[in-house]
Amino acid sequence: MNVVVVESPAKAKTINKYLGSGFKVLASFGHVRDLPAKDGSVLPDQDFEMSWEVDSASAKRMKDIADAVKGSDGLFLATDPDREGEAISWHVLDLLKKKKVIGDKPVKRVVFNAITKKAVLDAMANPRDIDISLVDAYLARRALDYLVGFNLSPVLWRKLPGARSAGRVQSVALRLVCDRENEIERFVPEEYWNISALLKTPRGDEFEAKLVSADGKRVQSKGVKNGEHAGRLKALLEGAAYSVESVEAKPVKRNPGPPFTTSTLQQAASSNLGFSASRTMQVAQKLYEGVDIGGETVGLITYMRTDGVQMAPEAIDAARRAIGDQFGERYLPEKARFYSTKAKNAQEAHEAIRPTDFNRSPEKVRKFLDGDQLRLYELVWKRGIASQMASAEMERTTVEITAANGSDRAGLRAVGSVVRFDGFLAAYIDHRDDSDAGDDDEDGRLPEINARERLHKSKVNSSQHFTEPPPRYSEASLIKKMEELGIGRPSTYAATLKTLSDREYIVIEKRKLIPHSKGRLVTAFLENFFTKYVEYDFTADLEEKLDKISAGELNWKQVLREFWDAFFAQIEDTKELRVTNVLDALNEALAPLVFPKREDGSDPRICQVCGTGNLSLKLGKYGAFVGCSNYPECNYTRQLSSDGAEAEAASLNEPKALGRDPMTGEELTLRSGRFGPYIQRGDGKDAKRSSLPRGWKPEDIDHEKALALINLPRDVGQHPETSKMISAGLGRYGPFLLHDGTYANLESIEDVFSIGLNRAVTVLAEKQSKGAGRGRTAVAALKELGDHPSGGAMTVREGRYGPYVNWGKVNATLPKGKDPQSVTVEEALALLTERAGKAPAAKIKSTKATKAEAADAKPKKTATKAKSAAKPKAATKAKKTDT
């Protein structure tokens, strides 16, 4: 018997069926060991010696693998076909050698790009040794991320309180988002006018032509800068006679794009399907690992972490056969198409992302897939088959028109295009991301127009416009930009974006990435004091060196030495850096954010409350805010915000009187504090305060709303069964009902003020009917996942801190943004396994970063954050973070 080690238990089950009884397939559940989250895990002074740690869950799995190998004939390491997969195989083999169970048994590495019987059997027939160059590249990347995280993040914590962390790739991606925001803030709109004429042919057909020249000079796009100039040109056209100078119809071919890579799949799924990068990878992982198709588990797509754009010859042949069968011979080009990647530093050798079987059309598998799986599979199938189809044939028509008004002349142009043969467009049409979309004047079809014929003017249009700032990045456009610059690797993009969102460095609104004030502060700090390490070229150059390590062209420790010497010197230089130096630099770098312009034109850096103090950034326990230099005589403070809230807060420089509380006679005021606007009743230490709920704007607050908010919790009425009071209030975790020690969540803040006794009793009864648990009412399962391999049911539930996976007494919080209904058995097992292996709660209190934070240096957690601290660790443990 031979032992085969894969990463996923789902793959293990499928592959065991393919290989038969002579093999035993076991899963490693991703990485089996990692660098401990503590100082000394990487030792630069000892030639970058690395100390690895095996957690309890991984130790149990390694014991099972070791026991199986002990009685086996040989070992096949079949982890994923990328650098990370190579590293996992190396870790497994190293641990087995230390357990002394390998002996003289043959050990081979096998890789397959798809979970199909043919792909697996072919790989098993062609094994190789572990590629040490790929392992070296992994070790270099892991050491770099650790050294940056565990040395740069503490600098942030000391010099910029409230900052969470800094990471090697994360910080550069964040800089891209912040730089774009700076461009938007600095942008000055410019006026321009569009001039066009609606013309009619002798046959009565209307079309529009745009002004392109006047008085012998070319009129550039957006070249008419004011209304006076536009008026003169419009007057010329109003009294002009029009004739067709020339008509040119030119055939144009449009070729299909290559099959998907990781990044182009993420971009297309964002633009076409509205998927986040992380959601795309979750669904793709499932399609790769296999879906039950009529009683057989089959991988539907090839491996989804790749830079490659080429398909295997047999896949190209299959695609061409499918094109002939499903679209017809007219859609089949004479020769197969071959592609080469244009991405900077592309280095993957394996295939593009494609269907494992082109005959398995989306329609044939529809009933076996859920909605998201079907939509993503359809995208991959269409893009893959389109890549081998005939070109689309277009006809582009350009009409040049002369407008004559006395001795004055103007030129107009009309452009249109017609699809003569749709070609690959019959299978796949790419939806451009809205941030990349521009004006397209070639979509319209022109009527019959002949040279030298006269045209009749129907109307002259003159419209005023203003230039717009560059659009904020979406996930798709940021991924595209990172790939163009060579920053990070495709498989890291989703994790990088999730990290930025989880740490509240960016917020995502309407699919746009907006830097939070925290993120802008961190970026400004790094740009001022660690300039080199957030430069795009430096980061791309380092990625290129890592690629050369993987190709065996560079020594990995030499690359680390060169990096560490300069980086350590920069860290040492910051020890003498004073916080006042930091604040001065940030005040200048972030002036538009810290000191927004005032409507009255007064100096935005002078305190409007005392009139003499200078406003400046201040650093507190919970981060940065704006305060007055005359503190404590002047206690004006203002919260930093990137969503326009700073302008609202600025209007509250002085408390705004809202009237008095009729019960206490104390005055109600609307104020602005470092944590945002709030209501206050009375003055002094005993004054009662209440922050505005999410969604409430300061300008909408009147006496009635202020009174209702400050007097929470509100008595709803006595419960008919217990005669005890039911109250409604707003707490740390949102609006709630409280009765006899039992809490029940309310859907909105409005419910707190409007809910009546009957509805309150119903809500409490529904909560009570779900069962009791540990002093609070237990909740029903949102989703049943089946039994755990060790016995006992696994479920997804909604808790006080958000949705979580439950198995017996083990609860594992879902990653932020994860849809509870989309949780798979494999994801649940990974989260529970990681959670079960954690230290007791008392040991969670730590002054060091957690293990997941070592990869990108997330800062320390306090006991109150213990639950949230577990999330990124669980999420990153079971998934890849690099190719």
From TrEMBL:
Region described as Interaction with DNA: 165-170
Region (Disordered): 646-697, 837-883
Enzyme Commission number(s) from the entry: 5.6.2.1
Catalyzed reactions per annotation: ATP-independent breakage of single-stranded DNA, followed by passage and rejoining
Keywords from the named record: DNA-binding, Isomerase, Magnesium, Metal-binding, Topoisomerase, Zinc, Zinc-finger
Compositional bias of kind Low complexity: 838-849
Domain Topo IA-type catalytic residues, every copy: 131-571
Biased composition annotated in UniProt, kind: Basic residues: 860-883
Pfam families: Topoisom_bac, Toprim, Toprim_C_rpt, Zn_ribbon_Top1
Feature: compositional bias, Basic and acidic residues: 850-859
Coiled coil stretches, renumbered: none
Active site: 303 (o-(5'-phospho-dna)-tyrosine intermediate)
Domain Toprim: 1-111
GO MF annotation terms: DNA topoisomerase type I (single strand cut, ATP-independent) activity
Site keyed Interaction with DNA: positions: 31, 141-142, 145, 157, 305, 503
Subunit structure: Monomer.
Task of the protein: Releases the supercoiling and torsional tension of DNA, which is introduced during the DNA replication and transcription, by transiently cleaving and rejoining one strand of the DNA duplex. Introduces a single-strand break via transesterification at a target site in duplex DNA. The scissile phosphodiester is attacked by the catalytic tyrosine of the enzyme, resulting in the formation of a DNA-(5'-phosphotyrosyl)-enzyme intermediate and the expulsion of a 3'-OH DNA strand. The free DNA strand then undergoes passage around the unbroken strand, thus removing DNA supercoils.
Family: Belongs to the type IA topoisomerase family.
Name the record gives this protein: DNA topoisomerase 1
Organism: Rhizobium lemnae
